[in-house]
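Case study 2.
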Amino acid sequence: MHIVHFAEIDSTSTYAKTHAASLPDLTFVTASYQSEGKGRQGRTWKAEKDENLLYSLFIKNGPMVQAGPFLSLVAAVSLSEVLERDYKLAASIKWPNDVYIDGRKIAGILLEGIGAECLIIGMGVNVNQLSFDGEYRISPTSLALCLGEKVDLDTFQQRLFAQLLANLEEHAAKNRFLAYYREHDYLRDKKVSYEGKEYIVKGVDAEFSLLLKNETEERHIVSGEISFL
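Prediction:
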C-alpha cells in the first residue's frame, strides 16, 4: 500500500490523473481538505477540513482496470462491511455508488478512467462532520452523528483501506459482491423516474446494471441519473 497525503489540495483525483505516469499501482492519495472535490455528474463534493476521509485510489493493475465500473460496487461493499463489522452500523448501498445509513447518505464514490490503462476510485466518507451546508432532499449523515461521538479518523482509514485492498484482490468473485449488494439494496422496490418515465426498481443484473420495470417494459441501466418519486 502506498499513501500520498496532503493537508490541502484541489482534488485527490486530479492529482492522481496528473501524476499517473509516476504513481505506483494501488496508491492512495488522501487529503485533509479538498478545495475542488469531485462528485458525480460534475458536482462538487464539499467536506469540512480534518473531519472526513477523502481519497482517490490509483490503479494500474490490468485485471482490476478491466473490471471497470464493477469496482464501484467493490468499494461500496468494502465501506459497508467496515461500518457493519467495526462500528455496528447497518449500511445500505444505493446504485451505483453511494452508501447510506438510516436513509441518509454517508459516502459517495466516483470511478474515473485514464485511457484504458489506469483507473481511479475516489471516495468521500463523512466521518466526524456534524453539520452540512447546502440544499439536500435528505440531509447527509456521518459516523459521528450515527454513533453519538467522534471516531478516530486514522483508525477508520486503516480499516477501510485494508478492507478495500483485500476485496479488490477478490474482485473477480462477482457473485459474492452482487449477493452482498442485493442484501443491502437501498433502491429495491422504490418508485423512480428515468428519462421522463416512471419505474419500479427491481434490483441489479449480473453485470451490476440497474433493473427498472413498469407495466410496458423492463430496462437494464448501465449509467445515468434516476430520481425518486
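The mean pLDDT is 93.
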